[in-house]
Specification:
The protein is an alpha+beta fold and about 270 residues long. It is about 20% helix and about 30% strand. It is globular. About 35% of the residues are buried.
Amino acid sequence: MTLALAEQAISENTGRRRILLTLEYDGTGFAGLQTQAQGQRTVQQELEAALSKIPGARPKIWPCGRTDAGVHALAMPVHYNTTDRIPVEKIPYALNSLLPPDIRALRAEEVLPDFHARKSCHWREYRYRILQRRMPPALERHRVWWIPQSLNLIPLRHALESLVGTHDFRAFAVKEERSTVRTIYRAHLEVWPTEGGREIWLEFVGSGFLRGQVRSMVGTLVEVGLGKRDSSSIAALLQGGTRKDAGATAPPHGLYFVRAGYQPYRH
């Protein structure tokens, strides 16, 4: 018997289940996803508090990744263990009755005991939203980076191409002690018309991302779009640049964790 089958048999005998939960949250009022040593309000803190009120649910979650203060999520996977018998289709309703309004459980499914929201993940997708118009936003002020200056999208697209592939992203990492080599499968730009301007989406799909990597890349790409640096500078940064050589870090409120994949990425 394999270890996975043995664990499954133990799970069946003890009544323990592993639940994969998909979350949506507005990061404006949080100090990030993961619990903070200083006790600030976090997504993990709120979700584990809600789980503790469900008999049988172990109030401990394992998220797919992390998001910093102010960063949002459209579909963040987390898993937890439980011995409750609530039907999976009713778990989101039970949790949403206990969660604050800036977090919502979108769906739940039972997974095998050896599934892990982070370790089983093959890729993650992020989106960064930039609003370009003369006037600052009111409704979207916590959800986009407002840039009144015009961005030149031609060199910006060229710069994005340099990010695709396996590279050392140390020039875009913040306080990172792990290996800084990562693979980006897709780096894409979309433009959407808005009232009085346009919205630019910068989208990244990768095997994983370093702390601060996406926001550092976006800040550097914006400098390319503003004509403050050449599009070829991105390739140079990947060859041997340091964080001080790259651009400023983009603000957190324009960033969204979009989704994660548990199968190899395909375009």
